[in-house]
Amino acid sequence: MLQAPPATDIYLAELRVSHGRASVGAPVNVTGRPGYDNQPMFLPDGRAFLYTSIREDSQADIYRYDIARATSSRVTATRESEYSPTPLPDGTGFSVVRVGSSRSATTRGPTRTPWCCSSSAHPPRCRSRTPRRQAGTER
């Protein structure tokens, strides 16, 4: 029997450093809703973060939280589930781990594949980042 993911939320708190001492403000729940909201990753400009959210459709998708507007928007909407959003170092998009079902005769059950998504298109264009094998290197 498949278990539902735990109900989790993401909190933000202001961090201040003064005279070499850090202080943390009161945490604010920014995803206060039923369901799974987890794996936040700040974008390079610090104005937003990406996170994984599982909503009523039981599908894990990537959302973007805009800190100044205090709003979330859906970034991916696929048949597979995406987890672990990570901004690409060059700022052109983000990577995710996409979990899907294998229909291969040699692989059964869920598959986990790295994907890169362009942030210049809406919805973002995603492509597999599975390493290609060179001829003669099959195992």
Provide tags for this entry.
12 strands, disordered C terminus, 4-stranded antiparallel sheet, 0% helix
What can you tell me about this protein's structure?
The chain has 139 residues and is mostly beta strands. It has a domain at 35-128. The protein has strands at 11-12, 15-18, 21-24, 28-29, 36-42, 48-54, 60-66, 71-74, 81-87, 93-102, 109-118, 126-128. A four-stranded antiparallel β-sheet has the order 5-6-7-8, with no helix packed on it. A hairpin with a 7-residue loop joins β11 and β12 (126-128).
Briefly summarize what is shown:
The chain is mainly β. It has no helices and twelve strands.
Radius of gyration: 18 Å
Overall average residue pLDDT: 81
* Portion in beta strands: over 45%
Order of helices and strands: EEEEEEEEEEEE
Low-confidence stretches: 131-139
Number of helices: 0
Q: Helix/strand/pairing class, anyone? A: mainly beta
Distance between the termini: 34 Å
Q: Give the tally of β-strands.
A: 12
Rough outline: globular
**Largest sheet, order of strands side by side?**
5-6-7-8
Summarize the main sheet.
Answer: 4 strands, antiparallel
Helical residues, percent: under 10%
